[in-house]
Amino acid sequence: MVSKLFFAPSKVLAAGVVALAALAGSTGHAQGLRQQLTVVELYTSLACSTCPPADDVLSEFAGRDDVLALSFHVDYWDYAGYADPYGDVAFTDRQERYLERFGINYMLTPQVFVDGKFEGVGNDKPKLEALIKSAADERLNSVEVRLARIAEREVNITLPSMEYGGQAEVILVRYDVTHTTHVTGGDNEGRLLTNVNVVRQVIVHSLWKGDPISFDVPLERLDGDDLQYYAVIVQEPGQGPVLGASYIDLREDA
Question: I need a surface site. Which of 5, 27, 53, 154 has the fewest CB within 10 A?
């Protein structure tokens, strides 16, 4: 188990990125084939003074067609006097599993992970760019994840047959496009901060062993009425390598 030693990000920084093969689509339609995505997972907090620059870097990558950028807000900065409204212990646990896998024995922000294989500094844009390129260059095994909206409150997930020889988790992720927050405590007290692709919920739906599968998921499995974006990540257990992913826009005006 990772010891939760809270280092100020100005003193200790680490990061990583996650690369995924992916498909994307719009509300009400099946997805069309697009280039494989590199998914960047940023672990951040509104109470962390050195996180806003990393949040800004993530927003730049979020605009790229070859990147799916996700912002995971952790809850362990709450001790600083401000509870991040998007923070969740589930995201802290997800980060902790990455740290265990990478042999890092302290919690820190901002931090990114790439493809379950690489780590770097969250607010170092050139380094993150290099890690994204490395993830794409070294991507060997990938699974084509098909994600389609089949009803107002239901989506279909399809995975093809693939010679895999292991098992991977099929992970459902709900995230919002953007949130602007007036921070009333912590190191960023008084600041107005904007975060993009803010993850609100993560669910491990099932396991995949390389067999072709297709299943429908009612959106009631995801919390909240204001569903914006929905992603599916196929990843080896223990925050291992990502095999594939897809996302879909669920906004009514999409």
Answer: 5
Asked if residue 191 belongs to a domain, the reply is yes
Whichever domain contains 146, its CATH number is: 3.40.30.10
Alpha carbons 202 and 133: distance in angstroms, whole number: 26
- Whether 11 is covered by a domain: the verdict is no
Pairing, β 67-73 against β 37-44: parallel
- Contact assessment for residue 38 and residue 68, using Cβ atoms and an 8 Å cutoff: yes
The H-assigned helical ranges of the chain are: 51-62, 89-102, 125-137
pLDDT digits (tens, 9 = 90+) for 14-70: 333 232 233 233 333 344 444 577 889 999 999 999 999 999 999 999 988 888 899
Residue in the structure block whose two tokens are 């912590």? 186
Q: What does the block give as tokens for 196? A: 């993009």
Domain region containing 60: 18-249
Alpha-carbon distances of 220 from 154, 156, 227, rounded to whole Å: 8, 14, 10
Residue 1 C-alpha from the chain's centroid: 22
Question: Considering the chain, what percentage of its residues have pLDDT values greater than 90?
Answer: 50
Q: Is residue 9 part of a domain?
A: no
Q: Which helix (H) or strand (E) holds 245?
A: strand 242-249
Closest C-alpha to 248, from 21, 19, 24, 64: 24
Cα separation of 111 and 72, whole Å? 10
- What tokens does 158 get? 């399809």
Q: What is the pLDDT of residues 79-105, one digit of tens each?
A: 888 999 999 999 999 999 999 999 999
Domain assignment of residue 28, yes or no: yes
